[in-house]
Fold this sequence. Notes:
Helix content: 55-70%
Number of helices: 2
Strand content: under 5%
Mean pLDDT: 93
Order of helices and strands: HH
Distance between the termini: 16 Å
Number of domains: 1
Structural class: mainly alpha
Amino acid sequence: MNYxxxxxxxxxxxxxxxxxxxxxxxxxxxxxxxxxxxxxxxAMGLLFARQAALGG
Length: 56
């Protein structure tokens, strides 16, 4: 369950960060494009899900 929920929350947070903060100049590697910010959020969600599964 965590391996589905955490990446979805991470994707939503990553996309929300892109929309609200973003990077106007396009020079930011992560937040310049919506798909990189969302992908980063998914990756962070997976890391948190893994940590939660391990009990930490």
